[in-house]
Amino acid sequence: MVQELVIAVVAAASAGALYLSAAAKVVKQYERGVVLRLGRLRNDVRGPGFTMVIPGIDRLHKVNMQIVTMPVPAQDGITRDNVTVRVDAVIYFKVVDAANAVIQVEDYRFAVSQMAQTSLRSIIGKSDLDDLLSNREKLNQGLELMIDSPAVGWGVQIDRVEIKDVSLPETMKRSMARQAEADRERRARVINADAELQASKKLAEAAAQMSAQPAALQLRLLQTVVAVAAEKNSTLVLPFPVELLRFLERAQQPGQQTESQPQQAVRPPQRPTQEQPERPAQAHPERTGQPQPQPQPRTRAQKSQSGAPVPTPAVLAGTAHARSSRSKPFARH
Length: 333
Known about the structure:
elongated, single chain
C-alpha cells in the first residue's frame, strides 16, 4: 500500500515537472512574446523575464526588438539621363509592434528586403547620375519614405537607409576623369591669373617707392646678386651701374670739343652737294680742235649761300691755277 502511494507521488511529481518544463518560458530583454491561444491572439504581450503558457493550448512567438541591419542586394538600373549603373544599399529597421509583426505579415524580414529592392530600382530610374554621386542624402530620404510607408502596417519602423556604392561603366569613369581634369586645370589657370594680378599690383607699388630713392634700386640689385650667388652653381654677370656710365660720358665731353675745333679749320673746301641735271657729252677738245669753255668762278657770296665753307684767298688762287692748267689743250709735237 505504501509502495503504491510512493509510486503515485513520484509519477505526479514527474508529471508536474514535465508540465512545468513545457509551460515555463523565458523571454529575453530585447524580445517580446506574442501568445496565440488556440490560434487566437492574446491581448497581453509578454514582456522580458519568466512567463507561463499552457502546453498544447498556448503557442508563444518571440519577436526580436533590436535594430536589424540588412544589406540590400546590388540592383542594375538606368538613370534618367540614360546611364547604366549598379547600386547597392543598406537598411536599418526595427520592430515596434510585436503583434502586428507576427499577425500582419508572414515574414517581416523578407518583406522589408523585397520592398527595399523595388524602391531602390525606382529611385535609380527617377534620378540623374549626378544625384546618385553627389546628392545621396536626398535620395536616402526618398528611399526611406518609400520603404517606411507599407512597413508601418507591419509593425516595423525604418530607422535609416543608406546608398552604399554606385558602380559605373569603365567608359563613364574615363569620361568623368577627363571632365574632372579639365575642371582642375581651369581652376589652376584662374588661380595663376589672380596671383599674377596681385603680384603686378604689389610690384607697381614697390616700383613707385623705389623710384623716389635711386639707391633703393642699387640695394635691390645687390640683394638679387646675393640670392643668385648663394647657389654657387652658375656664372654671374654683373652689369655696370648706369650712373657710372653717365659719369664717364660727362668726363669725355670737354676733350672731344677741344679736338674737333682745329679739324674744322684745315677742312678742305667742299663743293655743294646739290644734284645737278646731267649734261650731254661733249667732244674732246683735242679731236674737235675747239677750245673748251672754262667754268666761271663763283663769288664768295654765292659760295656762302650754298652752305659750303668760304676758302681763303690763297686757296682760291691755287684752285684757279689748277683749273687753268687742266683747261689748256695738249700740244702735239
